[in-house]
Amino acid sequence: MMQNVHLAPETDEDDLYSGYNDYNPTYDTEELENDTAFQQAVRTSHGRRPPITAKIPSTAVTRPVATGYGSKTSLASSMGRPMTGAIQDGVTRPMTAVRAAGFTKAALRGSAFDPLGQSRGPAPPLEAKNEDSPEEKIRQLEKKVNELVEESCIANSCGDLKLALEKAKDAGRKERILVRQREQVTTPENINLDLTYSVLLNLASQYSANEMYAEALTTFQVIVKNKMFSNAGRLKVNMGNIYLKQRNYSKAIKFYRMALDQIPSVHKEMRIKIMQNIGVTFIKTGQYSDAINSFEHIMSMAPNLKAGFNLILSYFAVGDRDKMKKAFQKLIAVPLEIDEDDKYISPSDDPHTNLVIEAIKNDRLRQMERERKAMAEKYIMTAAKLIAPVIETSFAVGYDWCVEVVKASQYVELANDLEINKAITYLRQKDFNQAVETLKMFEKKDSRVKSAAATNLSFLYYLENEFAQASSYADLAVNSDRYNPSALTNKGNTVFANGDYEKAAEFYKEALRNDSSCTEALYNIGELYDSEGDKSQAFQYYYESYRYFPSNIEVIEWLGAYYIDTQFCEKAIQYFERASLIQPTQVKWQLMVASCFRRSGNYQKALDTYKDIHRKFPENVECLRFLVRLCTDIGLKEVQEYATKLKRLEKMKEIREQRIKSGRDGSGGPRSRREGSASSDSGQNCSASSKGERLSAKLRALPGTNEPYESSSNKEIDASYVDPLGPQIERPKTAAKKRIDEDDFADEELGDDLLPE
């Protein structure tokens, strides 16, 4: 069977894989550099010949051959294509490219592959600026002007108004230089009007901030009258603000109205603010009807708290009860546009949510919301206190109406504060029973209101010397709100009245820990240390009390007397000068100032002060005595004039005393009995001082009138001070202490509300 099997010989058949390594040498680009024919073709015109196109008959033309005689003979191209630039049928063939795009001979001479051109080295340096060119000088000067304007604004925001004005003036000077230089180089159309506008506006604003109103108005007029400045008419609002500050109300209204006419109706908010300024100006001029029209329009278009409050004041001024009620309801209905407090309470235990709520609980937005709410409550409470006594037959009925309106609004928590304010009004009218009855209604209310009411009840019972009841309500106030400084102060006062001074000091200190500005607690604890003889500790607390409340005349007197006692008369001068400002009709404070100058050796200043006192109080004998003494020692000729005046006044004083004495002798026994009764009352006061109702500080007196001013006397005076401040009436809203003083109407709330300049 194997005989018929024949193996194929290896040489008879072609190899299946043969030919794969064979290639046409024409495509061997690696040997092109060594190919003599190719290199020759590249270097000569042989390689630039066009491809063969003999198959297209229409392109086969002849070309002329130049001869020595200038004649040309047509010669057909060997390639069958007309030569470049040849003329065919009278038409010249266009020239074609000789080389391919991007082809360079250098690429064929062994250069390395460098697509990024790194072999060419770094780029040449930039051309240096010519700083002496006019364009560059203008550019630098413009930059400097902008910097000065910015520095002026920063200085103004920091409170340095003088520096801000200097920078603004410097910017104005440089801007004028810039305009002149630009006019020399370019056409006037290329002047930077925006820069000129900003420089002038900043300069006018700085003049106004420095109260240089004439210069500010002149600068604003330059801007307003320039037609090239667009929307410059709005600056008439700023001019109206200046006239309002100058109390030129007619011009202020005129400019506000001119600005209002030039502002389109789409700018609703700005128009509302200008109308509010117009209304406030009408109130200042007493034109309440016109003011009412302005505020009524605002409340119908875009109601806000200030306009609503000013509308109530305007109706109060004209005495329209019904309109006052309607305006109060409009004020209550003004939307606050703030988030509810529930937003800041975490609904779950999610740590991420709690972290976010903690972050936004006291951020700037939350603070702004609190301020807005506090302002709304202030306006509502002030308006209610203002209109309650006049809208009904009695103030109690008026308060009840306000309370009912508030309860039906979003300010329901203010209803309790109004009730407490009603009790305070009863106190002002000396109706203590009604005040007590009103306050006792709050014993079952929430802790904040209960604490406020109990504080006021403690105050009332303390005034009536019912210390047991005062202590009981003070305990209730403290237990309801341990962080109420007024309640702690009242509790300290009740303990002080019982003679437990150490425990009283603890309550005063706790009140100060809760509120470091509690001047009542500071004063009381300073008085406590003074009564125990600890002058240094008493001085510390008196000084702190003065720092927080520099108008308390008792504190000022104690501090002045303390410095005199410690032989630092120069430091006592500032306190007595402040006392003379608070009580300008009391000659004793000015005499103390002059005495301090005299004791410190500044005789000329003392003499000038005594002369000034004599001009204000020509019948003061004490002042004339010191004038005579000082003029005698210094050797002035005026001594005779003052001596004559002194003798005349002393003689008049003797005659007056004799008349009084003769009148007493004629009156007989009843007068004596009354004097005896008065002396016995005085004795009771002295004995009461041991109970803590009155304290006295024994300080060294100033020299008497019959003693030389160089000497220092050991005579003591009784500088008596009122005992610890009694418990203070609670402020209805903030649960802080409140004195019983005159009602404080909100005329000062008629803020100008000037637009920002």
Radius of gyration from the alpha-carbon trace, in angstroms? 50 Å
Shape descriptor reads extended
Helical residue percent band: 55-70%
How can the largest sheet be summarized?
Answer: 2 strands, antiparallel
Q: In which order are the strands of the major sheet placed?
A: 1-2
Span of the ends, CA to CA: 122 Å
Question: How do the strands and helices of this protein lay out in sequence?
Answer:
Elements: H1 36-43, E1 62-66, E2 72-76, E3 87-88, E4 91-92, H2 134-157, H3 161-185, H4 193-209, H5 213-225, H6 236-245, H7 249-262, H8 268-285, H9 288-301, H10 305-318, H11 321-332, H12 351-360, H13 364-391, H14 395-407, H15 414-428, H16 432-440, H17 447-463, H18 467-480, H19 485-497, H20 501-514, H21 519-531, H22 535-548, H23 553-565, H24 569-582, H25 587-599, H26 603-616, H27 621-634, H28 639-667, H29 669-689, E5 694-700, E6 716-722, E7 729-730, E8 737-738
Function: Positively regulates primary cilium biogenesis. Also involved in autophagy since it is required for trafficking of ATG16L and the expansion of the autophagic compartment.
Biased composition (Basic and acidic residues): 730-741
InterPro entries: TPR-like_helical_dom_sf, TPR_rpt
Describe the 3D structure.
The protein has 29 helices and 8 strands. It has 757 residues and is mainly alpha-helical. The strands form 4 sheets. A two-stranded antiparallel sheet has the order 1-2. Strands 3-4 form a two-stranded antiparallel sheet. Strand 7 and strand 8 form a beta hairpin. It starts with 35 loop residues before the first helix and ends in a 19-residue tail after the last strand.
